[in-house]
Amino acid sequence: MRFGFTMPNNGGVEDPHEVVEVAVLAERLGFHSVWVAHHVFNIGYVLNRLGNRPYYDALTILTFAAARTERVELGTSVLVLPYLQPAGLAKQLATIDRLSGGRLVVGVGVGSLPEENAALGVEYERRGPLTDEFLDLMVELWTADDPVFEGEFFRLPAEPGSLKASPRPVQRPHPPIVVGGNRPPALRRAAKWQGWHPMTLPPASMASRLPVIDAELAAQGRSRADDGFRVHACLDLNLWPEPRDRPPKAPMHGTAEQIIDVIGQYAELGVTDLVLSGMMSDPATIPDSMGRFAAQVMPHFT
Length: 302
Fold this sequence. Notes:
Blueprint: E1 2-6, H1 16-29, E2 33-36, H2 45-50, H3 58-68, E3 73-76, E4 79-80, H4 86-99, E5 104-109, H5 114-120, H6 127-143, E6 177-179, H7 184-192, E7 195-196, H8 203-219, H9 224-227, E8 230-236, E9 239-241, E10 249-251, H10 256-268, E11 273-277, H11 286-296
Parallel strand pairs: 1-2, 1-11, 2-3, 3-5, 4-5, 5-6, 6-7, 7-8, 8-11
Antiparallel strand pairs: 9-10
Helix pairs in contact: 1-3, 1-11, 3-4, 4-6, 7-8
């Protein structure tokens, strides 16, 4: 089991340098990865939580974290692709992968805020097909000597050699792509790529969805076991999922032994990475929470 931590770029922290310091601390404490969240506007439930407090740009924060760290993976949790443009994003991500020496993990999703889609002029009901095409185009730009693409939403000139996409990522053929979301289309999308990155799912809920991913992988001649497929569990450090016959989230007030037992349930399902977040707490408490988790829990799984 590998452990990651999400930097509070979405936490309303006034000083962005404090956000990046979480990545520095995570590396020092032995976490395997650090992550950033993504929205463009404070709108809908984000507005309700933050008001006009800062929600920092995901890739700018990740670039600063790349410069301040040497070992940890650098992930996006998750980029809402319909809000972005594929050629520009492919270049940004390849640049981060090269700057970091090949440490990037690309977490993506379709988004769940119709209000934000409307504000950006993106059709909400078509966000799934757009995301699929977006990913295919980015991979074409990362891997093809003479990229060409013709789709419903995006196209490149059809004449080979008429353009080049540079730089390419360090990781070949490209950085791992992990897909957020809990519904069947997201599970099928995750199986096409390198991993599943769901948010706040209890072990029982993950167990009910993993057979869908396994069947999709098997249809491609792949499996989680032999393909290096990543399964992430993304949880708030101060809110711990409970069984379905209890509230979906409850304060993480258990002993270290109880928390270790819950993580063990994820491990039995084949979860490869536990990604924690301190978003819902006072940012000032994050270092202490990370330190306690690293000292009391992580040694049992590393």
